[in-house]
Specification:
mainly alpha; Four Helix Bundle (Hemerythrin (Met), subunit A); 8 helices; 77% helix
């Protein structure tokens, strides 16, 4: 494919814009000093990933990404932050002075994953004009062959929710208990 042919396709422009937004928000997730802002940047990065799946005609995967990750996990994360009243500002004790090492490891990981993808798929192009995802096949796979891992993940999420509530719950002192009963 030539550069002129690539520029002529509107889907490539949408891909480029969404890719830049995902890249920016992903960097802000790990560099934001406020944990609530980091969670909101993660919402934007996951929404951009859902748009990428829509560009690949994988509507079911995009919907699951929005419902499960944005709708459930991140909302649970934000509720956990609010319930526990965790400090949301910058914590000097959590500062990482090895940013150059972290960046180098990230670049090596990017290279390895890129090499693995190219060696596995070669120069095959993705057909985005095809039919959308067969949701019936995915549903049969999740609730048929993979029903045990699916249930284990749901149990882990439930356990995390119960654990978050337990950690956030504060027992009242006897004096506070008497004041509450008096009201």
């Amino acid at each position: 494919m030539t550069v002129d042919a690539w520029i002529a396709e509107p889907v490539n422009w949408v891909f480029s814009i969404v890719a830049v937004v995902i890249l920016f928000t992903a960097v802000r997730v790990v560099t934001s000093p406020n944990v609530v802002h980091a969670a909101l940047y993660l919402v934007a990065a996951l929404a951009g990933s859902a748009v990428m799946f829509l560009l690949l005609s994988a509507e079911f995967v995009a919907l699951v990404l929005v419902l499960v990750y944005i709708g459930a996990v991140l909302v649970l994360f934000l509720f956990g932050i609010m319930i526990t009243r965790a400090p949301t500002g910058f914590d000097e004790g959590l500062s990482n002075d090895r940013k150059l090492v972290s960046a180098a490891i990230s670049l090596v990981l990017l290279g390895v994953l890129s090499w693995a993808s190219l060696s596995a798929f070669g120069t095959d192009t993705v057909n985005t004009v095809g039919s959308p995802t067969a949701t019936e096949i995915l549903g049969d796979a999740i609730l048929g062959r993979f029903v045990i891992p699916f249930e284990v993940v749901s149990f882990i999420l439930l356990s995390a929710l119960i654990g978050g509530i337990t950690v956030a719950r504060r027992d009242l002192t006897p004096l506070e208990e008497e004041e509450r009963k008096a009201v």
